[in-house]
Amino acid sequence: MNFYVDTHAHIYHEDFIKDYADMLHRCEEQQIGKIFMPNVDHTSIDRMMELESRSPQTCIAMMGLHPCSVKKDFERELYLVENWLSKRKFAAVGEIGTDLYWDKTFWDQQVEAFNVQIEWAKRYSLPIVIHCRESLDKTIDLVEKVQDGRLSGIFHCYGGTVEQAERIIKLGFYLGIGGVATFKNGGLEPVLEAVSLDHMVLETDSPYLAPVPHRGKRNEPSYIPLVADKIATVKKCPLEDVRSMTTRNALALFNLSV
Q1: Annotated binding site
Q2: What pTM value is reported for the model?
Q3: Of 95, 144, 216, 246, which residue is 20 to 30 A from 121 by alpha carbon distance?
């Protein structure tokens, strides 16, 4: 595979409004062939769908409700997600999951929304893309309870241990490796050393979590090679191997052919 895949980028974010075309041009220069866009809630759908319609070969939409958008009215948000999933094909149900970083008030509702969307993923034979900030063990527990052989997906923005990675791999899921891998104290080197490329995909989470040397600035998909280079350095393997395997993994997961 001679191109990279960014499996998780919020390029519909307002940070990209002024230079969207230039950003895509930089992606082309860096051989970023596919960019998968996770939905957040009702506020992100229109812009995400617009970008997909403008660049359908490159920018590909998912549909889901982000756990940080699960509030008292989450049933209304879920209704919109279900309506969209019933109308057309999406790459995945995402971004879904749990979050205990910002607010613990709606944990029960987050779990309910997560489980409901998992069932939709099974119904439509779609992978899921999981957010699990400060809640990784709890989220793995939730997936273990419902994995019946019909679930696949990505634990996005992976930041856990080797042991947690092994649980995820046993479930048949991929680890989403992004900019945190390049951070001096990111803590991911043991995971990168221990885990085979067979179980990794690349991501940026743009506009967040830019890799070194851009840390603290806006992230964008053209920085994916920086993440791949870090993995290659830690694993002492050719950069081409990282690119090829992670791209194959992503295309297989999202059921795309080249």
Answers
A1: 8, 10, 95, 131, 156, 205
A2: 0.97
A3: 246
Question: CA–CA separation, 237 vs 97, rounded Å?
Answer: 33
Binding-site positions for a divalent metal cation: 8, 10, 95, 131, 156, 205
CB 182 within 8 A of CB 227: yes
Domain topology for 4-254:
TIM Barrel (3.20.20)
Per-residue pLDDT tens digits of the chain, which is 258 residues long: 899 999 999 999 999 999 999 999 999 999 999 999 999 999 999 999 999 999 999 999 999 999 999 999 999 999 999 999 999 999 999 999 999 998 899 999 999 999 999 999 999 999 999 999 999 999 999 999 999 999 999 999 999 999 999 999 999 999 999 999 999 999 999 999 999 999 999 999 999 999 999 999 999 999 999 999 999 999 999 999 999 999 999 999 999 976
Residue type (1 letter), 82: E
Taking CA atoms, 87 is separated from 54, 77, 81, 92, in Å, by: 19, 16, 10, 14
d(CA 20, CA 244): 26
The two three-digit tokens of residue 25, written as one number:
């041009």
